[in-house]
Amino acid sequence: MTHPPSPSLSTRRGSAFIALGVMTLLAASATAPAALAAPSTTGTIAFVAEVDADDEIAIMSADGERVEVLTENVGPDRAPTWSADGSSLVFNSRRAPHNTRPQIYRLDPATATATRLSDSTGEDQRASLSASGELLYLQRGVFFVEPYNLIERNLTTGVETPLTSDVDAAIWNAAPALSPDGRWLLFQSNRDVPSPSGPFPQTLYALELSTNTITA
Q1: DSSP strands (E only) in 143-180
Q2: Which of 72, 81, 157, 160 has the highest count of CB atoms within 10 angstroms of its CB?
Q3: Is the four-CA dihedral 102, 103, 106, 111 of positive or negative sign?
Q4: CA atoms of 42 and 53, how far apart (whole Å)
Q5: What is the pTM of this model?
Q6: Cα 163 from chain centroid?
Q7: pLDDT digits over 145-154, tens only?
Q8: What angle do CA 46, 114, 92 make, to 5 degrees?
Q9: CA–CA dist 13, 68 (Å, integer)
Q10: DSSP E strands: which ranges in the chain?
Q11: CA 97, CA 170: separation in Å to the nearest integer?
């Protein structure tokens, strides 16, 4: 178990914060941000931290000794996921001008610069990047109004490809994660769970991208 940092640790903003949960671990220290390369334990952890009553994206060395808060804005930043090469991470944010719905951003840990990657009228969340960094995988929907379906977005052309097409507003296809070889997209869903088991994703599925075949 990775423990949250103590309030005495320094951050970019110079204030104490509470770690809400470790979201993702970058395994190779060689690709971790240089300032946070762990001296005795490999990896840099990206997680959500509560700073001044707002959720922000933070990173820390795997030994928990050094911490840096990377975002500072009004509105929650959540669900950070590292790129395959560890040079950036993607996360979803509710910030101006889309305070009422999350959209996807890419974050450069070295400069703490965030760039918006999606622009939809839905709620874009819990994204991951392909190894090349060209393809973005995300969930999109509106809570109990529209189902959450999986989308592939080409960041070079802007072309979007729906990967699931459920129509029931109670269905959530969520948290897409690409396999290391780029062949499979793993995700959570309640698409085959009958009511009244609940609306939230409970089963893990694998989508083979070359054939668009889904297996539980």
Answers
A1: 146-154, 160-162, 173-178
A2: 81
A3: negative
A4: 31
A5: 0.81
A6: 18
A7: 999 999 999 9
A8: 60
A9: 8
A10: 18-26, 44-51, 54-61, 67-69, 77-82, 89-93, 103-108, 113-116, 123-129, 135-142, 146-154, 160-162, 173-178, 184-189, 203-208, 213-215
A11: 27
